Amino acid sequence: MILVEHLIRGPTFWLLWRSNEVDLEATDLELVRAAGGGDEGAFHALMDRHMKSLYRIAMGLTGNHADAEDVLQETFVGAFKGLRRFDGRSSVRTWLIAILTRQAAKG
Fold this sequence. Notes:
Layout: E1 16-18, E2 23-25, H1 28-36, H2 40-62, H3 65-82, H4 92-106
Antiparallel strand pairs: 1-2
Helix pairs in contact: 1-2, 2-3, 2-4, 3-4
């Protein structure tokens, strides 16, 4: 029996396919590359993957929900704009945290 938990079709791959024996999930770098190539589903998957942890960091930096949500939104806007410039020298998570920190400092 095969169980599909979450399925997003990209241009040439399935982002998540889960069965009882196999668990294949696109890496953050694969998602960034796909999103940089225009795959909106890949960008949404990347946002979903990192939203909770980034929100917690934003709450720690801003101290309130409204500002944390604003910073998080601006973080994802900045990430979207910078997809093609991401060079992989750091992890995607580190890159997103750097964007979030800059956005919080603006506020």
